[in-house]
Amino acid sequence: MVVTADRPVKAPSREFTPAEIGALAHLYRGEVYRSTIWRTRLDTTTNWSVVTLGVALSITFSSVGASPLPLLLVGILIAFFLLLEARRYRYFNVWRARSRWLENHFYAPMLYDGDLHLEENWQRILAEDYNRPRYHISFVTALGRRLRTNYIWLLTIQTVAYYGKIAVHPTAIDSIDDIWARAAVGPVPGEYVVVAGILYNLGWIALALVTYHQDKTRRTRLHTQIAMG
């Protein structure tokens, strides 16, 4: 702040040197590369889920007398892959947030009018994130995002296939007792299996809706931290 005889005058903001702009360009490339690598890891776990579900469908519908049990077991595997993918998504979100921060505050202003608006201190927020790296979202938020993006559809296919299997094989059901008999797993009555399956899916739906509401609320706030999405 420069003080004159009349009133205080704000000193001109500091500008990046050509060397610093070049360093930021290399930094951006590095963040994009890391986000791309972690994006590939996300696709890997999704592929595992798709393949295991496909195997379970093939086994279950291979013959009229085949058991629907593989479709129950694959639900456990899909849940495990979802947990693993949510953990990977938290890492991916760090690199993605940084690259988007640079795009929004460095490249976009440069292309608009050449003014990087350093007075907004966006560069300090980025520097703070490098000094004290942290996850930008919680594990539950990451779980909800991956669930809404991919896994809710896999779980829907699994659920429809399971109830479709017990409804038509070996013959079409005639009464509710047929459902309980075909859904039974060893000593576990079919009623318990069906209710557990309903609660299992309702739990995922509730998680998807709650985290969606949290994400929507977060987007309406002013971004005072580097976490963006």
Helix count from the secondary structure assignment: 6
Biggest sheet layout: 2 strands, antiparallel
**Mean residue pLDDT:** 88
Total count of domains: 1
Shape: elongated
Number of extended strands? 2
- The rounded Rg comes to 26 Å
Determine the strand fraction and express it as a percent band.
under 5%
Helix content: over 70%
- End-to-end distance: 35 Å
* Biggest β-sheet: strands ordered side by side in the sheet: 1-2
The secondary-structure element order is EEHHHHHH
Seen as an oligomer or otherwise, the chain set is: single chain
**Category from helices, strands and their pairing:** mainly alpha
Q: Which residues form runs of ≥5 with pLDDT under 50?
A: 1-5, 7-11
